[in-house]
Every structure is written in structure tokens, then in C-alpha cells.
Amino acid sequence: MESENNKPDRSNQRSRVNIELVPIRDPDHAAETDRTSLIPCSKYDYVLVGKEYAGDSEHDRKQKAFIKALENKGYQTQKLREKNKVYFGILAPQEIFSKYAHLLKNPDNCSEEEKVSTPTRIRIVKFMLDNTFIGNGEKLHALLKEKVFEAVFPLHEEREQKKLIKKWARWTACFKTQPINEVRMYFGEKVALYFLWLGWYTYMLVPAAVIGVIVFLYGLAFFESNPLIKEVCEGNSTIMCPLCDKCPMWQLSETCTYAKVTHLFDNEGTVFFSMFMALWATWFLEIWKRHRSREVCKWKLNNWDENEEELALELINDPDCTQDRYQHSYLRSILVLVLVCCMIALIIGLAQALVVFRVIATVFLSASKWQLMSDHANTVAVMMGAVLHYLTITIMTKVNRKVALFLCDLEKTRSNTGRERNFTVKMFTFQFLTLFSSLIYVAFFLGRINGRPGSYVRIAGMWRLEECHPSGCITDLFIQMAIIMVLKQTLSNVVEFMSPWLNYKIHNLQDKSPKGGSESNCIRDSWLHNYHMNEVNAFSLFNEFLEMMIQYSFTTIFVAAFPLAPLLALINNLFEIRLDAIKMVSLERRMFCKKTNDIGIWLQVLHAIGVLAVIANGLVIGVTSDFIPRLVYKYIYGPCAKGATDIDCMSGYINNSLSTVYMKDHNIRRDFEPSQLIFNGNNVTQCKYKDYRSDDDYAYTSQFWLIFAARFAFVLLFEHVAVVIKFIAAWFVPDVPLAVKNENLDRKFERLKRELRKMENRTTDI
Length: 766
Prior knowledge:
This is Anoctamin. It is a multi-pass membrane protein. The protein has 25 helices and 15 strands. The chain is α+β, with helices and mostly antiparallel strands. A five-stranded antiparallel β-sheet has the order 1-3-4-2-5, with helices on both faces. The protein has a two-stranded antiparallel ribbon with strand order 6-7. Strands 8-9 form a two-stranded antiparallel sheet. Strand 8 and strand 9 form a beta hairpin. The radius of gyration is 33 Å and the shape is elongated.
């Protein structure tokens, strides 16, 4: 035992454990005011860790002042020195939990005698620690920022840890049911609801993945017999105009493989699948609400009020406190709105920079000495753009977070919950635009704003914008989505797991001190083991939710271009559940427990994604896909429309969708270099490009305007039908099951009966 003023013996510090007890009133033994016995190592609520500073330093003074402030509130503390670190074990007095139970008597079970659970205890003590301040008004957050303390964390419970590892937090449990209630009793309701939602989302992905695979196989089944593919693959006599300033003329048949891939993802089944996914998104949300209601009813949290709990904790911490009032400033709101618009403009600017990169890359790749590279310059440029887009996403994620936090500071919300809600909306908006701005360009602008031979649109008057393949632009969208989704899910998950796993192993190798069986060694082993685990913070669970929301966006928005997205999401989620579980239980410090009865603002985010999915998929089919032009050709311009019965109705579609330019026109020749006008040693007199224009004056043909009107009508019809189906599904499926409603009714009835009996008994006694 050593007094606090004595300096530790550093020569023997690596092999010796120094425990210093601070005599303080033990809340469980009120009569024994000088009780200093060791508390069992698993009973501490929190551990504070900091460097061991010199006794006359400012940081040491602040450390002692904060611990003294806790002691004045009745907290019991215990101090341990180890390897230039000082650890403070914190045990809260029972009085604050009794006050909590009395003030927040749960209206669902009407009992204040119910024992405060460990997650609730962790949450209460965390609030008290965060709102304890030293003489100059500094709170724990400021002390952590100044490095007075390095870390604050609740301790893992070894026995409960082993139970969760056995049942849940291991790779061999991938196909087992999650023990949600046990997760809740260890990590709290917010973490439990995350895993409940993730498990339900994964379960609901099964039918979506099955239908997506069927649509893919449908395209594969007609791979060889499709007349459009045959027309492209046999188009040796069709000379196409160059796709870039350095690109040569090319034969239509050179893109046979591209046409086959396009047909896999752009066929009649795509329309059905898009409509199905719009209905699936609504069905998923409505059934999720019912699923959540059942679990929350079991937890007896239907009538839990977040604001009431926060007010109660403020009163328990300081009975003389004054509550924070709601504030609103139009000036601040305008400033935030302007800054958000500036950030969105920056993100859109980055998307345009990617467009410029792809255009320039196409020019340089087409001049490459590698034949394979020059022949597929456009496709390689799209793939390189997708990889660069992924790197941009990785960098912008950090920028978006800092900006979102800064904007939340400007808003000055009343509570942490309100701040978290505002941060979530801004961060998701920025991340969504970062991921999807480039995809939006590929889906709706690529090949539609590039002009025509003789009048190309150029960037800075130099580089031509990209063009679509004669089979359509949907393959470019598919390539972008596939690369980003695969990279994001594989690389992100590898980094997400391997980084904390390696850190954990390295810390374990560094700490090879012998473990003893005494209570002192138990304290040391427990505290050091928890300290060396990976850090968690307020963003830990937010990051998991955000990752899944982005994945959900990929699974529903633009799914018409990538029917296999639900299958990839399903496979990823089967591992994601266990990865997150293993991280939280075995590799990271215990997460700060939070109480809630729903997933909060994320539910509104899911609703918004569902609406965007309907709009985006309608536009993909109506605008990006060649589904509408094919229908118009089949029923108005094709051979069947003219009475032919011995030929496929789609024969001649590719040639019909191409326009011709003649090199005798000076304006046309000016747009190409002399070397581009030679193909196979012969001078080219004409070439074709994808558009519906007159060969004489290059004006749009009547077929173009008919297709334009048909596209517009289809988008309106698709979105209105999908929205009507969504509303009918939402109305048809109640958010709360009847069993839950009746159970809540019974509880209220029983509560009123008990209150009435109590009143009658008091009247009788009088």
C-alpha cells in the first residue's frame, strides 16, 4: 500500500502491481465510513485511464480534482499504477439507482422495485461521469481532449462474454438464431435493435436474392438466341464512328461480348424485378415495424420516453440544475442550409471530376501500345473510374463526418439525442451523394449530352464527352455498381475486422505479465485487458448503421441495372452479423449502453430510400435501359408491325437505332483527325453512331420524339403504380400487431385496477 503523494518505484514497476485504495464511504455499508476492502474486479462500473504525471503538473492536478469531485458525490474509487499509467476504478453509490427507479417507474410494468439492469447502470453512470466537472468548469469530455485521461470505459463481464461467444459471437454460428434478449442485457437496447434489424433485413433479402438470380438466369437462358446479340455479333459490315478523339473507326461486331453482357441485365425480367423490389422495400419496412413492436413489448418499453429519462438523470446528478430549453435561430438555420448546399456542390463537383478523368483516360488508353487496352479503352476507363470513385468515397467519408459535426455544433441542439439525429441526417445525405452522384451521371446523363459527329460537346473545348455502346448504357451502370459494391463490402469488411484483430493480438503479445489468482491480480488483469482492447466511441454503432443503410441503398436503388445486388448483400450480411458480434464481444471495449425502443431517425432514412428506389428504378428502365425503344420498334417500326410473320419481331433493331454521317460534310471531317478516317487501309466515306437523327440535316426524327414520349409516359405510370402499391401495402399491414396492442391494453387496465385498489385501501384505513 502506498500513499497518493509518494512516487512509485519505477525500477520494479514492470513486475509489481501497486494498488492504492482511497478511503471512501461504501454505499453498500453505510455504517462503515472507513471501509477500504477490495471490491471484486467485476463490480466496478467504469475505469478511467491516464498517464501518471508528475505531482506538480497541471494534468495531475486535474486528475485528482476530477476523482475528488466523484468522491464528493459518494462514488467509491480504487487506484492502480502500472507501467506509467494510472487506472481509477469507479463504483457508483446505490442511491442514484434507487432515485432512477423511483423517478422513472416504467409505465409498461408499473414497478419501481425492478432491479436496475447492468446496461442501465452503465448508461446512468456514463451520464453522471460526463456531467461531473472540476473547479474551472471542465467536464470529462474536455479532460479527455486535453489528455488528462486517455480512456473511459465500462468493463466486460467475463462470464457473460463467454456465453455470448458460445451462442453468438463466433463464425460457426453464422446460420444460428441470434440471442437478441441476451445481447440486450449485455449491450443495451440500441445495440440489440441494431442486430434485430440487421437479422431481419438479412432474412428478408432471401426472396429478393432468389428473384434477382431468376432474372439473371432468364437473361442467360436467351444468351445465344437473342436476335439483338446476333445482329451486333454479325455486324462486320457496319462501321461505327470513333468513340473518342484518338480512337479509330471500329466494326459493330467488335463489341459482341459487351452486347451479351448488356442483355443479361437489360431484359424484360428487369421491369418485373424493379416493381418487385419497390414492393419488397415497403413490405420489409412494414413487417419490420411489427417485428420491432413484438420485441419492444417483451422488453416493456412501449411507453418509454427519452426526454423524460434525460431530465431525470439531470435531476439525479444535480437537484439544483436548470433544464436546457429548446432553441431555434433562423440565422443559424440559413447558415447551415447554405453550408450544406456548398458541401453538396463540392460532392457533385467531384463526380464531374470523375467524368473528366474517364474522358481523358479513354483518350490515352486508346493510344496505348497494348492491343487489348486500346481495343477496350472505353470499358477500361469506366472500370478505372469506378476504382477512383471508391477511393474518393473513402477519403470523403472522413471529410463528410467533420463537416456534419461542425454543422451540428452550429445548430446548438438541446439534447445529445437531437444532435445525433441531426448528425445522422447530414452524414447520410453527404455519404449518399458521394456514393451515388457518379452513378446518377452514368445512369441518366452518359451518352445523352455528348452531341453528335460534327457538333460534339467538349470539356474545355478539348475532350469529347463519353458515349454509350449501341446496346445501351446500362452495362456502364452495372460495371460502376458492381465494382463499388464488391470493393466496399470486401475491402471494408476485411479492414473492419483485421484492424481491431491485429491491434488486439499485438497488445496481448506486449502484455505477458504473469496472471495471479488474488483479487489484486484480478483487478489488474481485468483492467489492463479491457484497456488494451480496441477503443469504442459515440460513432461505433453509428458507423455500423450507416454501412448497412448505404448497402440497403445499393440493394434497392438502381437494382434494375444489377439484379444480383440483393444476393451479394445477403452473402455479405451473413458474415457481417458475426463480424460485428465478434468485434463487440471479443475485440473491442464494452460499448456504452443506450436505451431506446426503435432505430430512431434511421427508420425515416429507410422510408426515404424506398421512395428514391421507386423513382430511380423507374428512370433506369424508362431512360437508361433500351426497354422502351425496343417496345416502340417491336410494335410500330419492326417487321411484325409491317405484317411479317416469318421473321423475329426484333430483327433489324440495332441498325434502326443507328444514324449515319457522311465524310463529305466539312463539319463532320473537322471533328475527326485524318488518321481516324482510314479503316483497314481504306478511306471511310460514312460511319454510324447511336441516335435517332436524320441523315440529311441531323435533326431528330419522329421516332426519337415518339420514344421520348413513351419513356416519359412509362416513368409516370411506373412510379404512380409503385407508389400506389406501396401505400396499399403500408395500409394493409398494421405497424403494431393486434397481440401487442391487446397486451398493452391489458397492462394499462391492470395498472388502473391496482391504483384503484390502493386508493380504496387507503380510504378504508382512514
